Amino acid sequence: MMEKQLVKNFKLSLYLIVPLLCIWGLKVLLSGPSSEMSGGQTSLEISEAVPEIISYNFDVKPILSDKCYTCHGPDAEARQANLRLDTEEGAFGVAKNLSNLPIIKSGDPKGSALVFHINSTDPKNQMPPPDSNLSLSSQQKQILEKWIEQGASWEGHWAYQVPKKAEVPQTRYQDWAQNEIDNFVAAKLENKGLNPSSLAEKEIILRRLAFDLTGLPPSLELMDQFLEDESELAYEKMVDHLMAQPQFGERMASVWLDVARYADTHGYQDDLERVMWPWRDWVINAFNKNLPYDEFITWQLAGDLLDEPTLEQIVATGYNRNHKITQEGGVIDEEYRVEYVADRAVTTSKALMGITVECARCHDHKYDAVSQKEFFSLYSFFNNVDEKGRIEYGETPAPFVTIDKKIAAEELSFLHLPDSIAKVELMVMEEVENLRTTYTLARGQYDAPDQEVQPGTPARILPFDKTYAQNRLGLAKWFFDEKNPLTSRVVVNRFWQQFFGRGLVATPEDFGNQGARPSHPELLDWLAVTFRTQDQWDIKKFIKRVVLSATYRQSSKTSLEASRLDPTNVFLAYYPRQKLPAEMIRDNALVTSGLLNGTIGGPSVKPHQPEGLWEETTSGQGLTQYQPDGGVNRYRRSLYTFWKRTVPPPNMITFDAPTRDLCTVERQKTSTPLQSLVLLNDPQFYSAAEAIANKIDTEDTLQTEREKILKLFRTITLRTPNEAEKKLLSDYFDALLSNNEQASENPLVDMALLIYNLDETTQKS
Predict the structure, then answer these.
(1) Taking the domains of the chain in order of start, what are their residue ranges?
(2) Of 599, 492, 523, 554, nearest to 764 (Cα)?
(3) Is the pTM of this model over 0.85?
(4) 10-residue block means of pLDDT along the chain (765 residues)?
(5) For residues 752 and 697, is the Cβ–Cβ distance under 8 A?
(6) For an engineered disulfide with 601, which of 416, 432, 516, 615 has Cβ 3.0 to 4.6 Å away?
(7) Residues 6+ apart with CB under 8 A from 401
C-alpha cells in the first residue's frame, strides 16, 4: 500500500510545488527581505571608504596575506627575491634585489619600496606581477599607503595574541540590550548606521530556542504554557527548563560528533562495522552533567594519562580513535598507522586551535607560521599508541576496553547497554611502554624519516612549556594554559556559530593568516576571556548568556536599509535565518507526528533508506546488506542513525550532513530540488505525514475540515496562520479533494507533506 502511495506521491510532487511557491511568496511579502544563507566567506566591507585609522591586523595584513604571501611569505621554497612580508624584520628590511629602497619606511610612503612597486605600471617592477592574477584595488593601495603614512605600526597576527577583556561599550540602545553581548553588537550597529531589530514574537523565539537547546521543537503544551506566562522571567525560566532536559546533551553531542568524525564503521573500501556508540553515550552525558570544557577536552585527549584514571575517563579517549581504519589486504601496515597518527594531530588542531596544520605535513606552511618540524612535533604526542595499521576482519583494534553489564551498571551508569548485548569492546587510548622516536617525514611519506623531533607545539602560537609532561596530558595542559591565545577563542566562536549560523570568525577551521577577520573582535575576546575566567569553562553558563541576549532574541525581519548597508547581516541587525541541520529536519517530523522514540543513548539504529545502496558500494566484503530496523527503533532520533562512512544516510547527506571521513567544524549550506523531493517522497516523512494526519483526523475536539487544517498547520509550525495563509491552505485542501485520483486517501496527508516542505518548517526562524 505504501509503495503505491509513494509512486502516486512522486507524481504529485510537481502539483505540490505550485502551492508551495505560493505560500513561500506570501511569506516573503509578509516578512520582508531575508538574509543570505551562503556558507562562504563573507566580506566585512559595506563600503569602499578607506578607514580613518588603519589597523595592521584588520586592514593591512589581509591584503598582504591574500596578495603577497604566495611569493613573500613563510614558505621558503616559494619565496622570491629573498623578501618576506610576513615578519617585521623582513617587512622593514631593504629590497636589495628590487629598488634598493627600504621595503617599508615608517611615515614615508614615497620612500617605501612597497608603495613604489604596487603603483608601478612597468611590468618589470609591478607588484603583484601582472601574470599572478593578484592585482590590488585602488582602495587596497590607499590602505597600504595610509598605513605607512600613519607610522606603519606592526602587530602580531590577531589570533596569536592573548585575548584581553575589552571594556563593555556604552550605546544609545541600552534599553534594548539585555546583557554585555548586546552592548558590543549595538555599538557595532551604531557605528555602521544600522539599528537592531525588535524582539521576535514568543511563538518564534520558543521554537528557535527549543531547536537550539534540544534539537527538537517544543510541544504545543509547552508553547501554550509559555504564551500564557506573562511574567518578566518567563523566557529565562524556559531557558533553564530546556537546558535541564536530557535532550540538551543530545543536541550538543550532534555537533561534537561532526568535529570528532564519529561513525559506526571503519571506512575505506570494505568499511566494516565498529562499536563506538559507548563513547557517544559518554559525550551526551558529559554535556548533560555540564562537565567543564577544559575537563571535557582533557579527558578525551588524555583521560588514560590522568592520575588513577576512572573507566569513564578512559572511555572518553575514544575521541582519538574515531578516525578511519583499514581492513584491506595488501596494505602496508606502517603507512596506515602513520595516517592514523596524522589524523589525530590534524583533527585536534582544527577542533581546538582552528589552524590548518595539515598543510605543514609535507612542507613548511605556506601562509601560517607552522613549520614541518612543528607539525611532526605535534604529531609525536599521538605517536605512542600500540596500534596496527591494518586490522583483521571482525577484530576490535587494540587498545580497547571490554564493558559488560556489571561494569556498565557499576562504573558507567550513563551507558545504555541493551539486554540483547552482553558486552562491547570500545577502542580507547593507551601509551606503549617503550615510546617511539618521532621524525619529520620527507614529503609526509611514512618511509622517509628525516630529522628527529621532540613533542612540541607551534612556537608562534605558544611555545610548549617544558614543565608539562611530553605526552597527551601535557598537550591538554598547553591548550588550557592561560597564555594560549586560541583555545577559548576557537570554542566560543564555534558555540556562536551553533546559535547564529556563522561564527564571529567566519572561518572556524582557520584562524590563521588566510582566515576571515572577526566581525566583532572586541566581543570575541570578551567572550573568550569571560568563558575562561568568569565562567570557569562552564558550557551551560556560557550558552545561557548567549540565548538571553537581545541579539539572539531578535526578530528575523529586516528593513530594506539594513539589507542595503549589510546585505549578508554580518553585523547582526536581525536574527539570521538558517536552515535546520539534517537531523533536526527529520526529528521535527518525528516529534510533530508523535512517532519519535525518545530513548536516550545506546547502539545505532537503521531507519529506512533506498534499497541497494550498500550493495552498489562494496567489493563483496564487509557490510553489504542494509536491513532496516522494525518497530519503534526506526523512529529514534537521527543522532542514533547508523553512520556508514562510505554510504552515509542518504536523506541526511541530501541536507548537507558530512560523511565524517574527516573533522568537520562547519557544514555546507545548500538548497537543492532534491531536498524537496526527499521531504515529499521519503518513506520516513510520508510515515510522519500519515501519522499526524490520522491523529488529527480522529481528534474529537476537531469537528470541521477547517479546524483540522489549522491544527495541522499549528502542530508542525507551532504558530497560528494569518488570514491570507488560512485561505491558501483551504484552497489547496479543496484542490486536493477535487483531484482525488492523484491525492492520498486522506487529503490531510498531502497537506502535512506540503507543510513539512515549507521553508518555515525547515528553517530555525
Answers:
(1) 56-154, 197-245, 257-481
(2) 554
(3) yes
(4) 40 43 42 37 51 88 89 84 87 73 89 90 88 89 92 90 95 95 97 94 97 98 97 97 98 98 94 96 98 98 98 98 94 97 97 94 89 97 96 93 97 95 97 95 96 96 96 98 98 98 97 93 98 98 98 94 93 96 98 97 96 84 88 95 96 96 95 95 95 92 89 95 93 85 78 94 91
(5) no
(6) 416
(7) 311, 314, 315, 425, 426, 428
